[in-house]
Amino acid sequence: MKLIYAKDYDSMSAIAATLIANEVYTNPTCVLGLATGSTPVGTYKELIRMHKNNDLDFSKVNTVNLDEYKGLTKDNDQSYAYFMYENLFKHVNIDMEKTNIPNGLNEDIEDECNRYEAVIDSLGGVDIQLLGIGQNGHIGFNEPDKVFVSKTHAIELTQNTIEANARFFNSIDEVPTVAYTMGNRQIMNAKTVVLVANGANKAQAIYDLVAGDANPMSPASILQFHQNAYIICDEAALSLVAQKAPELLK
Ligand code: GLP
No. of H helices and E strands in the chain? Predict the structure, then answer.
């Protein structure tokens, strides 16, 4: 795991986009693992800029997204399918047939989880996985739990996550309470992981990730065991590490 200091949000986004772009340049048929939330938006903007200015070619790329709310249609503006289309897919030359997101409308949880796990396996797993991090340390929607859950699963969202994500909805009552998420097997199997975090509200989660004990109550801490994970943070997200474990920043 490599902890990377970025001076601000734009610099964090540029570093993450460069790592992803390098993968696409060197391996045009790669499998990109993609994330939602506000943090990766700058990374996507930078990738779009590289597509427009530097001929970054997405035409052969496959994508798999981490998660999706259960019960939202693809055209619901809060679904992650909608988010990906608006923030990346519609701006680049990606083949929509090669994009994959859990189907939030599949009521049959076992069927959907097996289907999605098989989709990722059939692509040979993820080459580079982009991640954000929840305030409670979740990655994708792998919430704090007694165990690190391995496979794609449906999860009851914690109150903390529902409250944190309510800002995107008209009211907290509209936030779905269940989501499908990729599990730790595919995330840990990704050849490269790129986690982005900015802002003081992520400082505790980042401290727990890099300096805490690996523990499923702090889901991102599993990345301590990933051989090729880049944790890219701005100064505010690194503030607790700087205070309590400054040796990790050297
Ligand atoms: C959601 C997503 C996560 C994301 C998290 C943080 O819960 N499922 O993948 O990392 O939000 O979002 P933000 O970047 O807006 O803080």
Answer: 8, 10
Supply the pLDDT for residue 54.
83
The reported pLDDT for the residue numbered 37 is 96
Q: What is the pLDDT of residues 3-38, one digit of tens each?
A: 999 999 999 999 999 999 999 999 999 999 999 999
What value does the mean pLDDT take over residues 157-164?
Answer: 92
The answer for residues whose C-beta is within 8 angstroms of residue 152's C-beta and 6 or more apart is 102, 112, 113, 114, 116, 117, 120, 180, 181, 182, 183, 186
- Name the helix (H) or strand (E) containing 156: strand 153-156
- Number of the ligand 1 atom closest to the C-alpha atom of 140: 9
- 135 alpha carbon to ligand 1 midpoint, in Å? 8
The ligand 1 atom nearest the CA atom of 132: 10
**143 Cβ inside 6 Å of ligand 1:** no
Pick from 6, 76, 81, 2: nearest CA to 43: 6
Torsion of the alpha carbons at 133, 137, 142 and 147, rounded to the nearest 10 = 150
